[in-house]
Amino acid sequence: AALALDNGLARTPPMGWLHWERFLCATDCAAEPRRCISEQLFVEMADRMVAEGWRDAGYEFICIDDCWMAPTRDEQGRLRADPKRFPGGIRKLADYVHSKGLKLGIYSDVGNKTCAGFPGSYDHYDLDAQTFASWGVDLLKFDGCNSDSLELLAEGYRRMSLALNRTGRSIVYSCEWPFYLRPVQQPNYTEIKQYCNHWRNFYDVYDSWSSIKSILDWTALHQDTIVNIAGPGGWNDPDMAMIGNFGLSWDQSVTQMAMWAIMAAPLFMSNDLRHISPEAKCLLQNKEVIAINQDPLGKQGYQLAKDKNFQLWERPLSGRAYAVAVLNHQEIGGPQNFTFSLTFLGNGLACNPACSIRQVLPASRDWGIYSWISSLSVEVNPTGTVLLKV
């Protein structure tokens, strides 16, 4: 472990903005100037993050995903940004982002090509790490496409981790390692946490309820193998927040925000901050939910019970508190009531001998004091979630 990741970063789940889901691989700036993956897009997002309170709410990373590169490396074998779309280069963009009190994330791939076909980092791990550090990069998302074998995949993730260490720069390391392993073998999460600050386990999130639901179902199904490894310095990453886009209803947006807080998930939005509704902005900047997501105890939540269409989740928090989520999976009809005994929570300790309960989502209000043997009845909209703090 002494030879592994040693950056002291991600003591709480990282927060920021990532271009991929909303902007994909748009590279024709003449045809789509507002969508194009370019210096201008990231400068405009950085400006919005400061002016609209995102930075102050805790969102500190502006992250470039795939498709930022030129099609080939330079004469010295170094990666370079597409010169038309990033005329000032990544160093200039990093300086601008830093001047705003924000941090810059970038993307590469463990294989010989990125998922979109740009140059990968295979056989260039040290050079690429040094390049990113020289540009002032603060986070690397390292994808897993186009690796020739699981052995090379694992070796590449380890080697890039060590290469980032050797630069001496603090760079958060975001991995897709377990996702690419899982079809063939069970990931060794103890090892993965030794090398990565957060890691993807499941498919890319889409702007749809079916996608959010599948991520939650997968997480609950595998919680015995993934929940306990998460904590300060290393987190399970269920992928980006879709809130403020097109595919989720209001209740489904509340569910994603609540459940990402329960899961101690890295909170990276992928939306257009230049065009976001006041409601979506208010939800994403909700201080009480962010405080749960960022709780310093650093324990990931888990599903406690399933009953028909309802799921009950809890997350231990600092100060002997718990976050509790009641999720209604039903997609037909109206609001439904779910009743449970408070003795369920925290192995019977969360409300012993009494506790105060506060609703955080979908709206903030105090519910008062309850005794250990009380039952709680919660009304939840279809595909919605009620998030409580006990």
UniProtKB/TrEMBL annotation:
Subunit-structure text: Homodimer.
Q: What name appears for this protein in its UniProt entry?
A: Alpha-galactosidase
Instruction: Report the main location listed first in the record.
Output: other
Which PANTHER family does UniProt cross-reference here?
A: ALPHA-GALACTOSIDASE A, ALPHA-GALACTOSIDASE/ALPHA-N-ACETYLGALACTOSAMINIDASE
An example of a Pfam family matching this protein is Melibiase_2
Source organism (scientific name): Myiagra hebetior
Reaction catalysed by this enzyme: Hydrolysis of terminal, non-reducing alpha-D-galactose residues in alpha-D-galactosides, including galactose oligosaccharides, galactomannans and galactolipids; a globoside Gb3Cer (d18:1(4E)) + H2O = a beta-D-Gal-(1->4)-beta-D-Glc-(1<->1)-Cer(d18:1(4E)) + D-galactose; a globoside Gb3Cer + H2O = a beta-D-galactosyl-(1->4)-beta-D-glucosyl-(1<->1)-ceramide + D-galactose
In alphabetical order, the GO MF annotations are: alpha-galactosidase activity
Keywords annotated in UniProt: Disulfide bond, Glycoprotein, Glycosidase, Hydrolase, Lipid metabolism, Lysosome, Signal
Chain's gene name: Gla
